[in-house]
Amino acid sequence: MNATALPGRVEPLTWENAFFAINSALLTVDLHEAPIDEASLRQYDLVQAKILSQQTAELDALSALGFRFVEGEADFVLGIGVGGRPEGIRIARKEHIPALREVASSAFAFSRFRAPWYKAEDSGRFYAQWVENAVLGTFDHQCLIAVNDQGELQGFVSLRELADGSGRIGLLATLPEAQGLGVGQRMIEAAIDWCRARRLTRLHVATQLGNLPALRLYHRCGGVIERTAWWLYR
């Protein structure tokens, strides 16, 4: 495959464009589409693409079109066994939103929404909005929080139910002062219990390949890597 024969489509990212105030689009490789031409890319200030790591021909074609590597991603799948909800897990309510926004904005300050493609504060602002939406039941369906014996926030996990009968973790974060206390594992157990209550068959979660603590957590909790992918921008 060469750059002039990369089949696919380029579609504007409407929500992201309004949120970040930029003109961006997502390139999706699709063998049933016509080859992507230069003109369809030039009309956007930024074009994103996510490609499975084994799609080497497509990666070469994107590189020839001027795309640059941004980050790698690993997608895990966990089984839904027997068990129950761990202690200290609550459903996040509207009154928790300010604290959750603050946690998310610092926990996800570094992501693929980074310079030179985005402003320095954009990543934290994006994930703060994500967790607020999860509490309100938009995009993700629910947000669970972990608290200590005094009721103080230790971390959160957002979840959504997928059409194929599985669940997906959207965000998972632990407060710095709660790290090393097993909060991450408690939130994974709570996420599995959430899936179990809805009779979902498995739980998916993705993280950056550079996020070693998250990779270790998901592996320790029984997660198996289902796929790896690369994000590229032009």
UniProtKB/TrEMBL annotation:
Alphabetized UniProt keyword annotations: Acyltransferase, Transferase
InterPro entries: AcTrfase_WecD, Acyl_CoA_acyltransferase, Bact_Acetyltransf, GNAT_dom
Binding site for acetyl-CoA: 211
Signal sequence interval, chain numbering: none
Pfam families documented for this protein: Acetyltransf_1 (PF00583)
Transmembrane segments: none
The protein's name: dTDP-fucosamine acetyltransferase
Natural source organism: Erwinia aeris
Gene, per the UniProt record: rffC
